[in-house]
Amino acid sequence: MQNREFPTKVFPSIIIDIIEYLYKYSNFPIPYSGAAVLVAVATVMGSRFMLRLSDTWCISPNLYMAIVGKSGTFKSPVINFFFKPIAEFDSTNIAAYNRRMEEYLHGPDRDDLSKKPKAMQMIVRDVTKEAITPILRANPFGITCIRDELASFFKSFNSYRNTGDDEEFFLSCYSQVDIVVNRATKDYIENVPKPTLSIIGGLQTNLVGDFFTKKRVDNGLMSRFQFVFDPDENLPALLNLLEPRNRDVSKMWADMLFKEDVANLTQREYSLSADSMDAYVTWYNKREVEMIARDGENMGEVRKMRGIVCKFALILHYLYGESNNASIPVETMRNATILGDYFLNTSREISIFVKNGGFDRRPAYRLLGQLDETFTTKVALAVAEQMKIPRSTFYNLLNQLIDDGIIIKIQHGEYKKKE
Questions:
Q1: Which of 81, 180, 231, 257 has the fewest CB atoms below 10 angstroms from its CB?
Q2: What is the dihedral of CA 288, 293, 297, 301, to 10 degrees?
Q3: Contact 237, 315 (CB under 8 A)
Q4: Bridge partner residues of 66 (DSSP)
Q5: Distance of CA 25 to the CA centre of its chain
Q6: Distance between CA atoms of 125 and 294, rounded to whole angstroms?
């Protein structure tokens, strides 16, 4: 069970205090809060902060995040709390923009497009791809799309046309591929160079299967999403009304989030220190070898994690107050790989969920009951074949038992049941 717990230890102590406070007094599940922290910080940073790994590979911290849980498990309240300072920032900027626009429209320069005001905005809600494109063009450092229900978001794809290009659009945005739109009804071509888009939203547990379609697995959209769920969602959410009134966690969070005057920042570029690069490469190569040994299980997620871990490193670098340091140190990268391992585990859990129709441990325990106290992968695989368990499912079940602490890996290919 330990691997299923969100690793809050990677955060600064103030963030840990905020998350634990909200868990105790607002019943906010810790994994939900951890996910919202990452995406909220990525939103404020945008493409103002870039990590260069090579001449051809430069990464911004944008993230796609799905918070999985039953109805009533505080998915939306968690997102709203952690994005409230950004919403207030947007509200102030939009009010100022509207005033400037009014002056522009009634002023002597109204025909001069170069003097037309621009609106700075960081978050949008419930918008279509058509609406997102001009907002991205007006906000070159990026925006975050918040959806209360991701399932409805994906159902809305291609609702205005039959060309089927909405998923490709969001695939391109994740990778910061230039958006070029040729519109027959307009005399110009819309162009958004290197768009930066993050997405966060809730996903009801019973709709995961609809979300996790074969097409979205095959085209790589699912491997771009990170998933969190609350392993304790079936426990009582008891009220605790003895909340101390002398702690303003909202202000604490806003101060952490806006460590920098992001509105006036120009783009910054970072690199990994030599030790950090070594830790990163060693970690990734180990995960690659493990994935190949499992017959390529979760290949898309493992290989996308090459870049996602670097996004985590950028986010942590900012949270640690080190954004003036152009080199990301090794401890930051090690903590980023801890997050990487957590999200690889949750991706595996989601895959198992879809294949088994739920977070059901019974297939794993039925397999375990047919094995000796110590066993090898070869023997366990033969037993699984007799039970008509597909090879890929077998590796998922084996990882379930390891993650739950039911079996221990003695050495490569050999396991022991925990006493």
A1: 180
A2: -10
A3: no
A4: 201, 227
A5: 25
A6: 39
- Residue 249, classified by CB atoms within 10 Å of its CB into exposed (0-12), middle (13-18) or buried (19+), is middle
Helix (H, G, I), strand (E, B) or coil at 177: coil
Q: Which is it for the CA torsion 218, 177, 291, 400, positive or negative? A: negative
Q: Which residues of 211-222 are buried (b: 16+ CB within 10 A; e: fewer)?
A: bbeeebeeebbb
Report how far residue 299's alpha carbon sits from residue 395's, in angstroms, rounded to the nearest whole number.
13
Q: List, in sequence order, the alpha helices (H) in 128-226.
A: 129-138, 150-155, 166-174, 208-211, 214-218, 221-224
Per residue in 152-170, pLDDT tens? 787 777 555 544 578 888 8
Which two three-digit tokens encode residue 119?
Answer: 């609106």
Distances (CA, A) of 321 to 151, 176, 335: 36, 26, 15
Q: Is the model's pTM score more than 0.85?
A: no
Q: Is residue 418 classed as helix, strand or coil in its secondary structure?
A: coil
Report the b/e string of 139-167 with b at 16+ CB within 10 A.
Answer: bbbbbbbbbebbbebbeeeeeeeeeeebb
Which helix (H) or strand (E) covers residue 403, if one does? helix 391-403
Give the pLDDT of residue 237: 64
Which of 59, 50, 101, 120 shows the shortest CA–CA distance to 264?
120
Interval 359-382: pLDDT, tens: 555 677 778 888 999 999 999 999
pLDDT digits (tens, 9 = 90+) for 40-52: 999 999 999 999 9
Ramachandran assignment for 197, one of left (phi > 0), alpha (psi -120 to 50 degrees), beta (any other): beta
Tokens of 169: 């659009």
Give me the amino acid identity at 295: D
* Contact assessment for residue 309 and residue 280, using Cβ atoms and an 8 Å cutoff: yes
